């Protein structure tokens, strides 16, 4: 049995990470809606499942791109990106980003650039991947 190519591992990790981020973003939003209050413009009552499905599907699709870019980073720097560290650190980055953004949106009552937290986490995750690859490269030298 042949081993799975590392590029495919990065792409699959990206898809899983994107889906998990969608679940996490929906969970944070629903929790904050219960704590702070439910404005009429954000998630309508009973629409949580639709919101979850949209974020999981879109997160998975953007995860494909994320995984491909992580593979490019790995190939460019010549070192593997530790997938588990990348997964955990990106989730730790996303938690405050989603939480603060959702809290501010709910508290102030208006949506400002809806994809902003996802963009921040996407770029931050790529920066984390580059730092992890660079760190493992520096450690090998």
As residue ranges, the low-confidence spans are none
Share in helix? over 70%
* Overall geometry: elongated
Helix-strand category: mainly alpha
The total beta strand count reads: 0
Order of helices and strands: HHHH
Evaluate the radius of gyration: 17 Å
**What is the CA-CA span between the terminal residues?**
32 Å
| Residue fraction in strands | under 5%
Largest sheet report: none
Mean pLDDT: 86
Helix count equals 4
List the helices and strands and how they pair.
Layout: H1 6-36, H2 48-77, H3 83-108, H4 116-140
Helix pairs in contact: 1-2, 1-3, 2-4, 3-4
Task: Give the structure's gist in a few sentences.
By secondary structure, the protein is mainly alpha-helical.
Describe the protein.
The chain is mainly α and 141 residues long. The protein has one domain (6-140). The chain is 79% helix and 0% strand. The chain contains four helices and no strands. It has helices at residues 6-36, 48-77, 83-108, 116-140. α2 runs parallel beside α4 (116-140) and α3 packs antiparallel against α4. The longest helix is centred in the N-terminal third of the chain and has 31 residues, at 6-36. The protein is elongated, with a radius of gyration of 17 Å.
């Amino acid at each position: 049995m042949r081993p799975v190519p590392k590029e495919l591992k990065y792409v699959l990790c990206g898809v899983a990470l994107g889906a998990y981020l969608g679940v996490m973003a929906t969970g944070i939003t629903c929790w904050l809606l219960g704590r702070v209050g439910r404005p009429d413009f954000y998630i309508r009552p009973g629409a949580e499942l639709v919101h979850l499905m949209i974020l999981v599907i879109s997160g998975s699709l953007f995860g494909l791109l994320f995984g491909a870019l992580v593979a490019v980073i790995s190939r460019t720097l010549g070192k593997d990106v530790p997938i588990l560290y990348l997964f955990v650190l990106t989730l730790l980055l996303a938690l405050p980003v989603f939480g603060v953004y959702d809290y501010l949106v709910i508290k102030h009552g208006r949506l400002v650039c809806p994809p902003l937290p996802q963009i921040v986490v996407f770029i931050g995750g790529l920066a984390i991947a580059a730092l992890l690859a660079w760190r493992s490269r520096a450690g090998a030298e």
